Amino acid sequence: MAFNLAMYPVSYVAQFNPAAGTWDEQWFQADSITLAELSAMDDAKRAEVYAQRNRFPLPLVNYTTQYALGCFEGMKAYPHKDGSLSIFRPDRNAKRFYDSMKGLYAPPFPEDLYLKASVEFLKRNRELGYVPAYDPAWEKDNFAGASAVYVRPFMYSEGAIGIGSSKAPYVIICGTTVSSYFKGANSKAVITDRIRATPKGTGWIKCASNYVVSSLAKKEAEEAGFMEVIFLDATDRKYIEEGSSCNIFFRLKSGELVTPALGDTILPGITRSSAIDIARGEGVKVTERKISIQEVAKKCVECFVTGTAAGVTPIESVTWKGKEYVFNGRKPGELGAKIQAILKGTQYGSVEDSRGWNLTV
Ligand code: COI
User: Fold this and answer.
1) Cα(40) to centroid(ligand 1), Å
2) What does the pLDDT look like over 128-140, one tens digit per residue?
3) Which residues of 229-238 are buried (b: 16+ CB within 10 A; e: fewer)?
4) Which of ligand 1's atoms lies nearest the C-alpha of 211?
5) Phi, psi dihedrals of residue 80, rounded to the nearest 5°
6) Domain around 30
7) Are 347 and 78 in contact (CB under 8 A)?
8) Same domain for 199 and 342?
9) Cα–Cα distance between 143 and 78 in angstroms, integer?
10) In a domain, 324, yes or no
């Protein structure tokens, strides 16, 4: 299943208690329907169960619904052949979530609570049969069509109105089963005129507001026949930043692999950092630096985007000012495919986890 709202029955809800300085935690179980029972239902009944699981009594008017002052994480857990399940680098997501909340001047959610709750979330839903089982058929295409659990922790403000920062935020963890994210007949990207992030803004935070411009630009790109959109920097209007929900890499004729350096306008992607490590481990020179669209147009031979949802997805071409620059004869490049194979293999347990990235649930 691609990205979807077929939510698992058990969710985690915590709220910060400012007086006590602690987090009040609770488990919210919408129903006890197992996956087998749900699968036997007719479509209308099943849709009602899913809709019910997406309802929870939270304040309607608050900093998140009114001013987009909220942040979230995207994390995946992968089934292995031996029947185990492992979360990929959840410590990194816990840290980024902490940093995002701090960046929004909300009391940050402790990393140890994040990890404990994420593991427990998976255990509780697995007991009801909701974690996909490993399928050896996934190995045929290097797990390209494989399923995983998408875990979505997010921050949601307490009831509030007027400009301010959240003092008693909720942290919710919910999830669904997912497979590949990008859909569509091509893997073409287009440079947009829109600006995703500005210096001193919130581009480095995984906050809801960043995705407003991303959604608009992505819709425009899709309507024009592209799979993905790419943003340029706000100051010089020439340096590549990232996609609508992913970081980006370019392999140049020299063999160098370049990705835009982190700063206050780029999301510190965990797949991005993993791809850098893997490529370096394969002896590739990887540089985190500014790269202009002009340099891409002249020197790039392979391009791919990375993200938790996106994985490592090849980009066949980039269109800029109406001209299309095609990479590797529109075929997925060798380096991206190698990184993807090592990454997916590690995540699904077919490649040894030599870097200690998996946390077994
Ligand atoms: C992810 O890659 O998991 C994200 O959180 C981005 C999302 C907007 C698809």
Assistant:
1) 30
2) 999 999 999 999 9
3) bbbbbbeeee
4) 8
5) -110, 165
6) 10-178
7) yes
8) yes
9) 11
10) yes
Task: At 208, list the tokens.
Answer: 């809801």
Residue 209 CB neighbour total at 10 angstroms: 16
Q: Decide if 355 is inside a domain.
A: no
Q: Please tell me the distance between residue 29's alpha carbon and the centre of ligand 1 in angstroms.
A: 25
Helix (H, G, I), strand (E, B), or coil: what is residue 341? helix
Provide the whole-model pTM. Answer: 0.96
Residue after which a domain boundary falls, among 178, 201, 219: 178
DSSP letters along 18-82, please?
A: TTTTEEEEEEEES----HHHHHTS-HHHHHHHHHHHT-----SSBHHHHH---BB--EEEEE-TT
CA-nearest residue, atom 7 of ligand 1: 245
Is the pLDDT at 175 greater than 90? The verdict is yes
Q: How far is CA 81 from CA 78, 133, 135, 340, 353, in A?
A: 10, 8, 8, 19, 14
Interval 308-355: pLDDT, tens: 999 999 999 999 999 999 999 999 999 999 999 999 999 999 999 999
Handedness of CA 275, 277, 283, 288 (dihedral sign): positive
Distance between CA 64 and CA 33 in Å, rounded?
A: 31
Quote the number of domains for the chain. Answer: 2
Which amino acid, one-letter code, is at 327? F
Residues 81 and 168 in one domain: yes
Give the nearest ligand 1 atom to 245 CA: 6
Closest protein CA for atom 5 of ligand 1: 74
CA–CA distance from 110 to each of 18, 21, 106 (Å)? 14, 12, 12
For residues 62 and 157, is the Cβ–Cβ distance under 8 A? yes
Pocket of ligand 1 (CB under 6 A): 74, 211, 245, 307-310
Percent of the chain's residues with pLDDT above 70: 100
- Within this chain, do residues 143 and 262 fall inside the same structural domain, yes or no? no
Pair (140, 207) in one structural domain: no
CA angle 59, 64, 65 (to 5 degrees): 70
Q: Which of 75, 246, 101 is nearest to 174 (CA)?
A: 75
